[in-house]
Amino acid sequence: MFARDLATPCPSIGVDDPALDAARLLAEQHLPGIVVCEPDGRPSRILPGSQVLRFLIPPYVQDDETLARVIGDQSAERLTSALRGRSVREVLPGPPAGELAVCRPDSTILEIAVLMARAHSPLVAVVEDARLVGCVTLPRVLDALLGLS
Amino acid sequence: MFARDLATPCPSIGVDDPALDAARLLAEQHLPGIVVCEPDGRPSRILPGSQVLRFLIPPYVQDDETLARVIGDQSAERLTSALRGRSVREVLPGPPAGELAVCRPDSTILEIAVLMARAHSPLVAVVEDARLVGCVTLPRVLDALLGLS
Asked: A51 to chain B: which residues are within 8 Å by CB?
């Protein structure tokens, strides 16, 4: 079984799109993560949901986490208004520490599993000719490896 | 809004339970991850799905990933039979690099968000008196922060 057999269509977001759209897309579609594409369409980051969540945490809280306790009752509206007008590029954390969770259409199921485990990513982007053709998610890989699919 | 308001019941697995059970639980219930508990009931690891997936990757493939390409067609049955009889403790990766994704029932929504982002974890265990009382998952936190819930 290869990546092309396991891939499903997957929403992506452009680096110049609003950061709030990325968080909303993730929340509304209950995605495990999101693929960020450059203006030329090339996927440049695969962000697990826990890293998209970071977009919503005000910088002053990330700098001084004791504030997270004090301002726990801050309204959602205040949080999201701070994010309004900022692009994905502006709120992206630094360059990824590990490798990009990207595979080819002919990658094997074990190659995808090794990549997911190493990149700590619940999804892998399937890329052909620098274009995103779909995503393989963790449940698909687990099902395939356990012989459930 | 506090952890106790956002928590949902969450399946856990004992360190001495079969590793295959952890992978099956994750696959069947489509969980984002799993809480591993010590024999005395104390949660000791919060494993994102991508790390439970690691249980299913044979050690010789983790040691030499080029094998993942060659043996891509190895049957699921052969993979799971290699895992049979091994406990969670036996297949756990080394000690976690970061902090444990654990909070108290009175942790604030922003504290949980900071913890998820820092621990790269799609779930946080809510613990009281060294007992697991539930989990907060990423979609719940996103919904709450975006004012969708």
From this structure: 117, 120
